[in-house]
Design goal:
The protein is an alpha/beta fold. It contains 21 helices and 24 strands. It comes from Dipteronia dyeriana.
Length: 600
């Protein structure tokens, strides 16, 4: 097993996760099998109880792991399925060591950070690196490890020490350290400054780790004299210094690394000179170019409570992007704070209220994502009502589905106090209830989590067609509340259709309004299984409906079945450029595993 460690210096938020993912893409394009590990030095056991304002979205894995959003980047870039153990936290490590101590596994020894914590970290890395994540048998060839935070953080010190020991333990030729640092350009003089990176590398070396490659974040490509200076003071060969300058979208990053021959430097450090295959990123390059040149816009109103932080809905944004690229549309997300749609805002801040409603009414489609708590709920209900009454394409995810059901019960059934027991425990018409197996005393890891199977009760519905006329679908969940099964018949008699249910038939998973062009709500999170080139079926439906192309996608289930059973790809020439027909429109091909395609 070979290991690539990605660390960060100077400031946080430089894009270590994207860099680590892009390195994985590059190595995979060289023919190597790649797995990933993210180390988060915080004391939380996992990301499940953390506010999106604290750490961005909580990404959910097939096994129910609630993990850092960077694991979502790994899965999307590398087309792999990780496990909860691929996210290491200080909380997990200390908990495992304390559990061993309570069992007496240390035989009376004084349990210390060194060697017990550091050994536990190394053993965890070695164990998880051997887990296959790409659907093939046997371990991967390379494990890319990202260390969260910045070099010098107190909480990451045990991990730095462990990784220093680990590099010695696995030996030369099996460990490559890539340090992501900042080379700022001061606006006053316009000069690229190397001192922050010099100090960062000095601190790294002082902790026992020596970088093999420098990945320098800057607004523009590094000048040659700057590279020479960094090489001299950081003791890194000039050819091992790459620039990660600002790009229109993150799909460019693997291409940047390839153009600067980062793969050659990595393979050399890892003693993998036998890998002669040049990285094949033709399809990736074509998709990136298409994303850059799209100009026909599709506007989606995102109605949520965390609109001030886009990372809170990162996977939703990526899923929208994947679908919009597949539909040849430039994605424009209109952020609508749910609370701004409410009557209280109309009284307190009428201009804000007016602006929010103008954004909503000007959108081609409306999306209400998941969330917790009662803030902004009434605004989300107004958004769902507007979409239903005005035939605007609508997708509700998790809480968004529950909101759609509550709105329908209030407006169509006339149950004015219909609500979720999450927001009103005493409501006389509980449309949404707490799940019996949930815990009301413990928050972490007690929800209905991970991949669960949904069976289609109605085969002729839009959702089933989008999934390729499948009889069931496996999607990831994260919720404590569900639609009240005792009210389902009443809701269906009024026109709402619960087209997807769990294996028991009592848990509602997918709801549609048959009389509406596209009004879909799902209890699961389809965004967690959307990849570049393989967009989520329901997001594809939303974008297609917003563009007026839904019938084309639904026609015969052709495009959607290829999406679910194979791989959606960009048709490319050998030089990696997208095929451009004579009419000037870009032409996408959905190709299945046999290489057959259907033009869309």
């Amino acid at each position: 097993m070979k290991y690539v460690l990605v660390t960060g210096g100077v400031v946080s938020g430089l894009g270590k996760g994207v860099t680590a993912s892009s390195i994985g893409v590059l190595l995979k394009a060289c023919g190597l099998r790649v797995t990933s590990i993210k180390i988060d030095p915080y004391l939380n056991t996992d990301a499940g109880t953390m506010s999106p304002f604290e750490h961005g979205e909580v990404f959910v894995l097939d096994d129910g792991g609630e993990v850092d959003l960077d694991l979502g980047n790994y899965e999307r870039f590398l087309d792999i399925k990780l496990t909860r153990d691929n996210n290491i936290t200080t909380g997990k490590i200390y908990q495992s060591v304390i559990d061993k101590e309570r069992k007496g596994d240390y035989l009376g020894k004084t349990v210390q950070v060194v060697p017990h914590i550091t050994d536990a970290i190394q053993e965890w890395i070695e164990r998880v690196a051997m887990i296959p994540v790409d659907g093939k048998e046997g371990p991967a060839d390379v494990c890319v490890i990202e260390l969260g935070g910045v070099i010098g953080d107190i909480e990451s010190m045990p991990f730095i020490e462990a990784l220093g020991q680990f590099s010695y333990r696995v030996g030369p030729g099996n460990f490559c350290l890539i340090h992501v640092s900042l080379v700022p350009v001061l606006s006053v003089v316009g000069e690229q400054k190397t001192k922050p990176t010099q100090h960062s590398v000095r601190g790294l070396r002082g902790l026992g780790l020596t970088p093999n490659i420098l990945a320098c974040r800057s607004t523009k490509a590094l000048e040659e004299n700057v590279k020479t200076k960094l090489s001299q003071f950081c003791h890194v060969p000039a050819e091992n210094i790459v620039t990660l300058y600002d790009v229109p979208n993150i799909w460019h990053v693997p291409l940047l690394l390839k153009d600067q021959k980062a793969h050659e430097a990595i393979l050399k450090v890892l003693n993998l000179k036998c890998v002669r295959r040049k990285p094949d990123l033709g399809e990736w390059k074509a998709r990136t170019k298409i994303c850059d040149v799209l100009h026909d816009a599709v506007k989606i109103a995102m109605v949520g409570k965390y609109t001030g932080l886009s990372d809170a809905y990162l996977s939703v944004l990526k899923a929208l992007l994947h679908a919009s690229v597949a539909c040849h549309r430039k994605l424009i997300v209109e952020w609508v704070a749910a609370g701004d749609l409410e009557d209280s805002t109309a009284k307190e801040a009428p201009d804000v209220y007016k602006a929010a409603w103008e954004l909503l009414k000007g959108a081609d489609g409306i999306l209400v994502p998941g969330g917790f708590g009662d803030r902004g709920v009434q605004g989300k209900i107004f958004a769902a009502k507007y979409a239903r009454e005005n035939k605007v394409p609508f997708l509700g995810i998790c809480l968004g589905m529950q909101i759609a059901v509550i709105e329908f019960a209030r407006s169509v059934l006339g149950l004015c106090d219909a609500n979720s027991t999450e927001f009103d425990p005493k409501t006389s018409n509980p449309c949404v209830i707490f799940m019996p197996e949930g815990s009301k005393t413990h928050m972490g890891g007690t929800m209905r989590l991970g991949s669960r199977r949904t069976y289609f009760e109605v085969t002729d519905c839009k959702s089933a067609k989008l999934y390729g006329n499948a009889s069931y679908v496996d999607e990831r969940h994260r919720h404590r509340y569900e639609v009240n099964p005792d009210m389902v018949s009443q809701l269906e008699n009024a026109g709402l259709s619960f087209v997807g249910r769990d294996e028991s038939g009592r848990r509602m998973e997918i709801v549609e309004l048959p009389s509406h062009p596209y009004f879909v709500g799902v209890q699961f999170h389809p965004e967690f299984k959307s990849w570049p080139g393989k967009p989520s079926a329901l997001f594809l439906g939303l974008i297609a409906a917003a563009c007026g192309h839904l019938e084309t996608v639904l026609k015969g289930g052709q495009a959607s079945s290829l999406l679910s059973n194979g791989k959606a790809s960009v048709k490319v020439h050998q030089n990696g450029n997208a095929i451009k027909p004579s009419n000037g429109s870009l032409n996408l091909v959905y190709s299945n595993r046999n290489g057959n395609g259907v033009h869309y």
